[in-house]
Amino acid sequence: MNILILGTPNVGKTSIYNIISNNTNIIHKTTGTTRDWHVSSLKTNKYINIYDTPGIIFDNKRPINEIYKNLISNIDIFLYVIDYKNVNYLNDKELLNSIRKYKKDIILLVNKDDNCEQNKDLQFLGVEDIYFISCSHKLGFDNFLSHFNKLNIKKDTDRKNDFSISLFGKTNVGKSTLLNRLVGYNRSMVSDIPKTTTDIVSASYMHKGYKYLIKDTAGLIKKNKIDKNSLDYYSVKNTLSIIKDIDLSLFLIDITQGFDNQSKKIFKLIFKESNVILFIINKIDLIKLNRKNYLSQLKKDIESDFSQSKNIHIIAISAYNKRDINKVKQYIHKLIKDLNKSLTTSKINIWLKKIIEKNPHPRVRGKEVKFKYATQISTSPLKIKIFSNFSKEISLNYKKFLLNNFYKYFKIKSKKVIITFSKSKNPYN
């Protein structure tokens, strides 16, 4: 069963969503904090999905934005929220009359009844099921939620997501547009105005038999420009919180802005925290002349500014023109398929033997540095442990040399590799 929360701005829809669902969205005094719809299961019944929406804004008498067309067809119940403290409900009455054309069940939720007075006659709104609540005091929710215990809920056997993906980058580099192209409909709100996406927006798509969960995040901006009481602060904090929990990071830059200082800082952060990363140069449709040369130079600049980027796939697309979207899906599919692949211990040690024979480590205090053995200890990230008689004295330059050679020898791209060193039992062996 699917329930959609509706209502005008600032009536408490997101507060209600956070209380009754297994998810948390940003709540802020700024009007219109919620700008895309979000979904989570009901806390008391995992087979009921709750959808949070932005406040409805009238646009030529159309109460529902175009972005919700696909969503509404799957909704069973509209949960319409009003403010108990209002004195005039003419706008709400008009909206309720408008949404009746969708022929869904409607529940009226009267929020901000902080003293449990329940003394308003709202029958004129034409809704039979009315519940009074207070989000700030968390009152009335038990009575409201008991409503769903009476319903015959069909158990949802939808397939779970196989892998998770997230989009990162500066504001307005095209993350929301790319998400919409990948899922095949307008899931995330797109605007020329920066910072349109504030909360994390999720959707799923199928490709070659796998179900991918993809998340659109708020654009990252410089910390010193963020007021800790602002909506931006909570948006950035929310974005950074998910990096370690996803399988693949897609990092986007705008080709017209290039790999600027802010992009470098964001990329360095994403690279450090991500297990698998794909670098995307977006908006190539804006380069009309000498595009091939322009891209070639930009890729050289990226590799020059961040040496590890040579171990990462860098692809160029135009999300706006739907160009190369299938190519993005193919890259994602390949990287995800390789996510849990292991290297055999024998192959790792053949590599180690070849590299140290050709390029041995400088002696430490006059003694030979011996690399005895290597083994893979995890797949995500790909972590290799090398046993040595001088594990703590391995130079930083040699560590970088081994890491880069490992990427090259095993032809690994976009997957994070970590090489650690441990002391062998006999340092003289």
Structure annotation, total helices: 11
The Rg value, from CA coordinates, equals 27 Å
Question: What is the CATH top level name of the largest domain?
Answer: Alpha Beta
How much helical structure, as a percent, in the residues? 25-40%
CATH T-level topology of the largest domain? Rossmann fold
**Beta-strand content bin:** 15-25%
Count of discrete structural domains: 3
Order of helices and strands: EHEEHEHEEHEHEEHEHEHEHHEEHE
The CATH architecture of the largest domain can be given as 3-Layer(aba) Sandwich
Structural class, please?
alpha/beta
Shape category: elongated
What is the count of β-strands?
Answer: 15
Rounded mean pLDDT is: 82
Main beta sheet: 6 strands, mixed
The CATH H-level homologous superfamily of the largest domain? P-loop containing nucleotide triphosphate hydrolases
End-to-end separation in angstroms reads: 66 Å
Instruction: Record the strand order, biggest sheet.
Output: 2-3-1-4-5-6
Properties at a glance:
429 residues; alpha/beta; Rossmann fold; GMP Synthetase, Chain A, domain 3; 3 domains; six-stranded mixed β-sheet; 15 strands; elongated
Give a description of the structure:
The protein has 429 residues and is of the alpha/beta class. 27% of the residues lie in helices and 22% in strands. The protein contains 11 helices and 15 strands. The chain has helices at 13-20, 69-72, 90-99, 141-145, 175-183, 231-241, 261-273, 291-305, 325-337, 345-358, 396-409, and strands spanning 2-6, 38-42, 45-52, 77-83, 105-111, 129-132, 163-169, 201-207, 210-216, 248-254, 277-282, 314-316, 371-379, 382-388, 417-423. The strands form 3 sheets. Strands 2-3-1-4-5-6 form a 6-stranded mixed beta sheet. It has a 6-stranded mixed beta sheet with strand order 8-9-7-10-11-12, with helices on both faces. The protein has a 3-stranded mixed beta sheet with strand order 13-14-15, with helices on one face. The longest helix is centred in the C-terminal third of the chain and has 15 residues, at 291-305. The protein is elongated, with a radius of gyration of 27 Å. It starts with a strand and ends in a 6-residue tail after the last strand.
